[in-house]
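User: Can you predict the 3D structure for this chain?
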Amino acid sequence: MADSLGTISDNVELLSNLPAMNPGAELLQAIHRLERAVDGLETGLGAHLSALDANNIARLINRDVTDHNAPLEPLFAVLTNEPIADFPRTGVILKGLRDVQVISILRQLGQSVNGSLAEKRKRLRIAIGATKILDEILDE
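Assistant: Here is the predicted structure, written as structure tokens:
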């Protein structure tokens, strides 16, 4: 009899591992997965908003640049809020960017990469806000 009670006790303990017998644990796991997903969204959204804010300020600074050799304020990648790699430091450098470089910067800014190189450069100069100095050097 004692052996039978021990076997029953062991089997009852195993029942707690069955999903149908423990819906609360499944719900708790789902809640934890949802919390992690929301945390990831908050982190990504925070980086995106910070980059947009910094980029707006950089555009305001860049729009007042009138010398094509003057430094441009760099922008940040909208997904990571990291400074854009190989950002053109001047209008002259912008003019010399190859297609692959222009595409990389546009993608980091969340901009379209369609069109000719001239169209992409125009989109880039608008995206960085440096429209006063770049018309003359880009349209040469």
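The first helix runs from residue 2 to 15. The helical segments are 2-15, 23-63, 91-95, 99-108, 117-128, 131-138.
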